[in-house]
Amino acid sequence: MPNTGVDPLSNGTTCLRDAALMQKLGINTIRVYNLGPAIDHDECVSIFNAVGIYMILDVNSPLPNESLNAEDPGSSYDSTYLQQIFGIVEAFKDYPNTLGFFAGNEDINDGNSASLDPPYLRAVTRDLKNYIAQHANRSIPVGYSAADVRPLLVDTWQYLQCAINGSTNDPTRIDFFGLNSYSWCGGPPATTFDTAGYNTLIADFSNTTVPVFFSEYGCNKVEPRIWDDAQALYSSAMTAFFSGGLAYQWTEDSNNFGLVNVSSNSSVQLRVDFDNFQAQLNKLNVAELESSNGTATALTPPVCQNSLIGNSGISNDFTIPSIPPGGQDMIDNGLSNPNNGKLVQVTQLNVPMSIFGSDGSEITGLAINPLPNDQSNAPSGQNTTGATTTTSAGSAASPSPTSAAGRQAVTGVLTLMVVTVMGALGCSAIV
């Protein structure tokens, strides 16, 4: 992370702590930001894999030369940048619980970036997919995470999901589309499906040809958050078109979005936000949610053309920039001496640091519970700080965390159930 200088997946002990808490919460996927391609992630990733938790990873970093300059993308789209994003692919491609990569996050957020960035985002998507095809032993989806700027949102999605020349195998086309959504903000007055604009989102994305989900959600204008937006997000009205969401964020910092407080000695205290979120997840019918709707990926994408884009200011230029000098050689021959991650045996199950509930009482005996193959994590119906509660949640098989062959993310809808972003740690998680 830029504010700590620590890669969020570099310390196995803290990952064990967080994985144990996330497993109790019912998380099945984490989104991880700000990763270093040269760091050893094996222990952390293996722990998350053991408990049935997948990863969607941002290839960009806020450090110099490790992301596109949204105000001048051509100046930053070079071989140094490609080394960063290809390095992330190399570091994570061999982990079977790598679910996908984000090629960009909120790059398009105003008029200037809307006019300049879209062709470069398609170029980065192409480069990542070509590198994966050449050097990974399976397909790994590549997508984009959009800012919640509603005037730009639909045209951004249209620009990125269409197929140039009508080819469904167009490598510049995204495999999934994420929306960082903060429109459901609690009350009083209480937020409703319509006041949050969810009815409009359904209308806007009803003909999507790629999986769409909330890549961040969890407005905190009213605290503590009660997370009733989770019930709306996983309602039948939304799940017909949206594949769940990533709740923002895991670790508390100055922005007040965290689910847990982490002290300097690595002990953790749950926040009321954690308890409220868990209560909402326990109400979900997981078995019903895991009956995935593959409609989006069965549709033929629209052909990219100027008329597809409205009057938002989003570029309608589908001439995609050529790969920078040296980039094609990296794709053809791979990076020199890359850091390739691999699963390792998880031997430590018990969390060694102190964990406290939101009421200050100590939670004892916290440990991870490794899951059998072909199972992902799901809400258990338990309250981490209290007694077992009744729930309709059930556990069903999902793509195997130990076998890439079982993964359905490329040809089917991503089954993202609830997500929490490890903010200060740089991750997000999905149930």
Protein model, in words:
- With 431 residues, the protein is an alpha/beta fold.
- Helices cover 28% and strands 14% of the residues.
- The strands form two sheets. A nine-stranded mixed β-sheet has the order 1-2-3-4-5-6-7-12-13. A four-stranded mixed β-sheet has the order 8-9-10-11.
- Strand 8 (260-262) and strand 9 form a beta hairpin.
- It is globular and about 60 Å long.
- It starts with 11 loop residues before the first helix and ends with a strand.
Main sheet summary: 9 strands, mixed
- Give the termini separation: 23 Å
Order of helices and strands: HEHEHHEHHEHEHEHHEEEHHHHEEEE
> Regions with pLDDT < 50 over 5+ consecutive residues?
387-415, 417-429
The geometry reads as globular
Give the helix proportion (percent range). 25-40%
Structure class: alpha/beta
Bin the strand percentage: 5-15%
Largest sheet strand order: 1-2-3-4-5-6-7-12-13
Number of contiguous helices: 14
Total number of beta strands: 13
Mean pLDDT: 88
Radius of gyration: 20 Å
Question: Keywords for this structure?
Answer:
431 residues; alpha/beta; 4-stranded mixed beta sheet; 14% strand
Summarize the structure.
By secondary structure, this protein is α/β, with parallel strands linked by helices. The chain has 14 helices and 13 strands.
Protein topology:
Layout: H1 12-25, E1 29-32, H2 42-50, E2 54-58, H3 73-76, H4 79-92, E3 98-105, H5 111-116, H6 118-135, E4 142-146, H7 150-161, E5 176-181, H8 198-205, E6 212-217, H9 229-233, H10 236-239, E7 242-248, E8 260-262, E9 268-270, H11 272-281, H12 286-289, H13 295-298, H14 327-333, E10 355-356, E11 362-363, E12 418-421, E13 427-430
Helix pairs in contact: 1-2, 4-6, 6-14
